[in-house]
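Comment thread on ticket #2218

A.B. wrote:
> Attaching the input chain for the structure job we discussed in standup.
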Amino acid sequence: MKPSLDVFSPLVGSKFMIETLAGPVALLLVEAREYPRRGLPAAFPTPLSLILTGPLDLILSQDNYYVDHPALGRHAWCIAPIAPSVPAHQVPAPPGRVTEQRYQILFS
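C.D. wrote:
> Ran it. Output below, let me know if you need it in another format.
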């Protein structure tokens, strides 16, 4: 599979299962976006960002994880947290506080 906006756009709103040492974690794909090429040679793919959300009770560290999706199969991708989480003792979050953890997968 070649990562592209055409591949991931139809999957926005679906869950990806992430294999962790604590067991599988479901992350919801909330955004797929391409970035401008800005002079990138044609031999390189267009930069692509996936934004996923997940629970606060298990925060994933930046690392490579096995990612499963029924439409894509299994892949190993680097996942990085991109938003601060609210400590578990503050859930539900006070007004204006983060209520979910956000993650990003970049393809470039």
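A.B. wrote:
> Thanks. Noting for the ticket: The chain has one domain: 5-107.
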